[in-house]
Write a structure and sequence with these properties.
By secondary structure, this protein is mainly α. 58% of the residues lie in helices and 7% in strands. The chain has helices at residues 3-30, 51-62, 81-90, 92-95, 102-107, 121-135, 137-142, 144-163, 170-187, 197-209, 213-216, 228-255, 265-272, 281-285, 289-320, 322-332; strands spanning 65-70, 73-78, 168-169, 339-343, 370-377. The strands form two sheets. Strands 3-5-4 form a three-stranded antiparallel sheet. Helix 8 runs antiparallel to helix 9, helix 9 runs antiparallel to helix 15 and helix 10 packs across helix 12 (228-255). The structure holds protoporphyrin IX containing FE. Protoporphyrin IX containing FE is lined by residues 88, 114-115, 127, 298-299, 302-303, 306-307, 310.
Length: 378
């Protein structure tokens, strides 16, 4: 290349570099404070196995509104109640849509349900439908007898364990109870010997919570470095088969005109396809079987691990704090029908209880809570 070409190109490159440097500096200066990131991965190296804890520590340094770059994803972390209120309440509609991830694509049948569907007319309509048909106070009250029945069965099994002085896997029992209650409301029956949901739902919740490099550095997605793509496919196939069986059963019942005293959620969703709901005519036109499956899965994912893990943690804290347990027992004594005290296995002390968590959508206990029930009230 001749010297004259260099004389033109070099200053041009210098000017371009200066222009982009200034622009990125200007853009950065408009962002909230945050730790400096590395090229390509940004701040990803600062997050470990429990990223919510690392983010808490960082926000104690950088303040209640912090900027992180997770691979190619710009991320703002809000950690003060007034700011959270601004995001979740005041400007709710601006922030209503959740980011699409590799997991969300599988979990919501390509974003066809409530949780991952972007905010808009379909989302509003489908959410209104689910709230009125499944989650309204009238609906919840009309199915309370089913939950009482399931609770009664669990109490009976705890009485049996108390009489035999057996250690009970409380976490597992709670998971089963919530699963049975939820399935009765959604599908009309608690257990089905043809399939087992107790493994696939926690696997889906775990996959949805796991750090997936493909979401932050999409260029690496096709390599499936963590083997998550394969796990998504296996879990999705399992749940899809289960949902297909449930829907087929309900369709068969409808074809045989089997009269049901209590229509469950799947019955209601399937009848939506036949346009029998005033006010939801547009929704019924845009719903096919994959939307129905996505909505059932949303409800399963929304209800199972959240409820189970909340109660699991509450009970663990109460077992660990006998003083608080006593105060609570005294407070609710007048409304209690059954009541148990809990003894830890092998004489281990409350202070020694393992309270570690694993990272996931619902932060489950790392180890199941196991204890022996002792009947307190007859
Ligand atoms: C203790 C139990 C529960 C906890 C702790 C819990 C927690 C949450 C949280 C934190 C959100 C996100 C809210 C947001 O982003 O604004 C959420 C959303 C949701 N939950 Fe729950 N939940 C529980 C029970 C349930 C149950 C029983 C169901 C269904 C039967 C359910 C269905 C949903 C659905 C569909 C969404 C998405 C709503 C939307 O995108 O607007 N949840 N839940």
């Amino acid at each position: 290349m001749s010297t004259s070409v260099y004389i033109i190109i070099l200053p041009l490159m210098g000017a371009l570099w200066w222009f982009f440097h200034l622009r990125s500096k200007e853009r950065r200066s408009k962002l909230p404070p945050g730790p400096a990131g590395l090229p390509i991965i940004g701040n990803l190296h600062m997050l470990g196995e429990l990223p919510h804890r690392d983010i808490t520590k960082l926000s104690q340094i950088y303040g209640p509104i912090m900027y992180l770059r997770l691979g190619s994803v710009p991320t703002i972390v809000i950690s003060s109640p007034p700011l959270i209120e601004q995001v979740l309440k005041t400007h709710d509609t601006v922030f209503a849509s959740r980011p699409k991830t590799q997991a969300s694509k599988f979990l919501s049948y390509d974003n066809k349900a409530i949780v991952f569907k972007e905010y808009g007319p379909y989302w509003r309509s489908v959410k209104k439908f689910c709230t009125s048909q499944l989650l309204s106070t009238t609906k919840i009250e009309s199915t309370s007898w089913q939950r009482k029945e399931e609770l009664g069965l669990m109490v009976e099994s705890l009485r049996g364990a108390a009489a035999a002085r057996e250690v009970v896997n409380v976490s597992e029992k709670l998971a089963r109870l919530i699963e049975d209650m939820t399935c009765r409301m959604l599908f009309g029956k608690s257990r089905d010997e043809r399939f087992d949901m107790s493994k696939v739902i926690p696997e889906l919740a775990c996959l949805n919570g796991l750090f997936n490099v493909a979401d932050y550095l999409p260029i690496l997605g096709p390599l499936d470095l963590q083997g998550l793509g394969r796990r998504f496919k296996v879990a999705f196939k399992t749940i899809d088969n289960i949902l297909e069986t449930i829907i087929n059963d309900h369709e068969e019942d409808a074809r045989n005109s089997n009269v049901k005293l209590n229509r469950d959620f799947v019955d209601v969703l399937l009848s939506l396809q036949n346009d029998t709901f005033p006010g939801f005519e547009q929704l019924s036109k845009s719903i096919d079987q994959s939307n129905v499956k996505a909505l059932i899965l949303d409800m399963l994912m929304g209800a199972l691990d959240t409820s189970h893990n909340s109660i699991d943690w509450i009970l663990s804290e109460l077992v660990r704090n006998p003083r608080v347990m006593k105060i609570l027992q005294a407070e609710i004594e007048s409304v209690l029908v059954h009541n148990f005290n809990w003894e830890l296995p092998d004489g281990s002390s409350h202070a020694e209880m393992d309270m570690s968590e694993t990272f996931g959508l619902t932060m489950p206990r790392a180890k199941h809570l196991c204890a022996t029930p002792c009947v307190r009230l007859p």
